[in-house]
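Limitations

Structures in this collection are predictions, not experimental determinations, and the ligand pose is part of the prediction. Treat each record accordingly. The example that follows, with zinc ion as the small molecule, is included so readers can see exactly what is and is not provided: the inputs are given verbatim, and the output is the predicted complex.
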Amino acid sequence: MALRNALLAAAACALAACNQSGAPEPDPPAVQLYAMDCGHSTFSDIGMFADDGSMNGQSRTLVVPCYLIRHPSGDLIWDTGLPEAIADMPDGWRPDGFPAHFVVPVKLTAQLQQLGLTPADIEFVSFSHMHSDHTGNGNLFTASTWIVDADERTRMFDAEHRADPQDFNNYNRLETAETQLIEGDAEHDVFGDGSVRVIQAPGHTPGHTVLLVQLPNAGAVLVTGDMWHLAESRERRLVPSFNTDRAQTIASMDKVEALARENEALVIREHVQEDFDAMPRFPEALN
Ligand SMILES: [Zn+2]
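Predicted complex:
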């Protein structure tokens, strides 16, 4: 009987991954990654995305995504896009003195509803960084736990940002939300099993972060915030002119490239149309 059991175990191990003691490995968590359309920005001049002047005078449309990660232990929204109030503006939003036109074709809340969710159902919220095309719907997620780099949070609530209600009022109510601060160079393991990690990649802002997701079938995916704004940015290591620390940004590019190699990760440059188009079309998910 013992022999028969051993043979059955060996046969099972031939069909599934087993550890050295012969017991089947636990199934990886059924994590799913959804790419949602949270607007787009059409720039009449993308010069600001390259501080070497090489992109001056060119026009380009940048996609603005939101990412939803569904894990058996909860949901995380990563970046919340442009404010969904723009969807109610008949011709979108054209800020004075800024060379861009912002459009939101479908509200984030309407997309969550397609999955039977409201913002209050989302356990965790995190932004790659504080800029308004990432924190635009931050105040929808005050019932979530906010995962944020300590330096980034300090900057978001400093006097200069409080004095700019246009952007500040998109996220200001998170000040009293339940918060998990990421200190120093630490990374944050969202669900405690290594499947979803918020990793520091500062420079664009003081606490810019990227997200590394391990999917059971598709493998590793790196969602890289504003590490690279344009299709040209990664290969040419372009640094935007609106940036906190150039040397730190270059060092973070090296760090994220190493992470991508080590994990053989699919790299998503969030504002690049072809990377967004390579994701399953919502409400389909990558898993
Ligand atoms: Zn951005």
